[in-house]
Write a structure and sequence with these properties.
This protein has helices at about 5-20, 30-35, 60-70, 70-75, 80-85, 90-95, 145-190, 195-225, 235-245, 245-250, 270-290, 335-340, 355-365, and strands at about 40-45, 55-60, 105-110, 120-130, 135-145, 230-235, 255-260, 270, 295-310, 320-330, 370-375, 380-390. It has about 400 residues and is α+β, with helices and mostly antiparallel strands. Strand 1 and strand 2 (about 55-60) form a beta hairpin.
Length: about 400
């Protein structure tokens, strides 16, 4: 049998001895309770109710206050149903588990915040063993997993989009080739002496083929955006150039243009042609939203240096500051049910729209490693917020 070296045995004994005599570190559990990011709610029986004791809110940590949107002062002493009236279904599920003697977990439960926002939370209910709590007590832990669910949804959408892009790219190529033949044949016939009716039909064929070819080109742009041709650019100058192109439309539509440009913005690296395409699309949509509006029509374009957050860099890089571009209008706004659909290819509310402009614009912003957010309210207007990064 192999023998263990004496020195190794002594080291193990010494280590075990040190661990045995190591003093316990004193811990203020109140600090732990207050520091936890997850929401903790302490529940206890109200024994003053006689034979039918009620379970009431005893304590809440700041994490719970932030998640639920209510403070401890507002709900202390209230029942769960009274404290969280927007979540009666979830409260009932929790109440059904109060008779359990073991910890119980509920996954992916919908929780309504104080302002009606929908969150997804995991709930853990555990019996509380404490002499300081009268009657029975429970610890209710709420963990907000909304960002995780959104990330999972985005990943699923990304996978579906990648599959769709492959199919779209192949179909677009297959369709474009015969379209070119149809258009060429129609143009060739139109040069000959044909009747006016025949010429009108040929003109329609050429026009419609050109329209479909343009649509297929947009599909290819969406499915294969290509490599960016980046260069150093000033976003204020680029926006001014785009607005010059829209001067006539703004004048004819009696639209007041408001520019609020931060002159101190640093340059950013971007593809001028692609960014122009995306920003012009957002502006055209804003102008279209102002059609038919009574009263003052306003298109506001604003830039500023985003100082409240930074994208962390790698390998010691201090990261990237962000430039914010906002394009706002006080037009018709976007209904809530349509707001989550506007980036879906072929979704459009315009009679002559293809439904690809916003999807392509979103792809361009993402290709620049930027972010895009749209907020809107019916009859009040829409704001497109674009963050583009700049290395500092």
């Amino acid at each position: 049998m192999a023998m263990t070296h004496p020195s190794k045995i002594e080291r193990i004994k010494s280590l075990l001895k040190r661990r045995a005599v190591a003093p316990a570190i004193p811990m203020d559990w109140e600090e732990v309770f207050q520091s936890l990011e997850d929401g903790l709610i302490i529940l206890s029986e109200d024994l003053s109710q006689g034979t039918l004791p009620e379970v009431r809110v005893l304590r809440m940590n700041p994490g719970a206050e932030k998640l639920t949107g209510v403070s401890l002062d507002m709900v202390a002493g209230l029942t769960l149903a009274e404290a969280f009236p927007r979540n009666q279904d979830t409260v009932q599920k929790i109440s059904d588990l109060l008779s359990e003697t073991r910890s119980k977990t509920m996954r992916e439960i919908e929780w309504r915040g104080a302002y009606g926002e929908s969150l997804v939370v995991d709930l853990l209910l555990s019996p509380l063993l404490s002499e300081s709590v009268p009657g029975r007590g429970w610890v209710l832990l709420l963990r907000d997993i909304t960002p995780l669910k959104k990330l999972e949804d985005e990943m699923r959408k990304s996978d579906r989009l990648a599959t769709c892009n492959t199919v779209i790219s192949g179909l677009a190529h297959e369709i474009k080739n015969p379209l070119g033949g149809i258009k060429g044949a129609a143009q060739l016939v139109s040069r000959k002496n044909v009747s006016p009716d025949m010429r009108e039909c040929l003109d329609i064929i050429i026009k419609e083929v050109t329209r479909v070819d343009h649509l297929l080109t947009e599909l290819l742009t969406l499915s294969r955006p290509g490599r960016l041709q980046t260069q150093s650019l000033n976003i204020n100058e680029l926006l001014n150039e785009i607005l010059v192109l829209q001067e006539r439309v703004l004048r004819e539509g009696d639209i007041n243009l408001v520019r609020e440009f931060d002159p101190s913005l640093p340059p950013l690296q971007g593809d001028v042609e692609r960014l122009t395409q995306a920003l012009l699309n957002f502006m055209k949509n804003a102008i279209a939203a102002l059609e038919g509006k009574e009263g003052k029509r306003v298109l506001k374009v604003r830039t500023r240096f985003q100082t409240d957050f930074r994208i962390r860099g790698l390998r010691g890089n201090k990261g990237y500051r962000m430039i914010l571009v906002e394009i706002s209008d006080n037009g018709c706004g976007i209904p809530r049910e349509d707001l989550n659909k506007i980036f879906i290819p072929f979704f459009t509310t315009k009679e002559s729209g293809t439904g690809l402009g916003m999807a392509i614009a979103q792809g361009i912003i993402y290709a620049h490693q930027g972010t895009l957010r749209i907020t809107s309210e019916v009859k009040k207007g829409t704001t497109v917020s674009i963050h583009l990064r700049t290395a500092l």
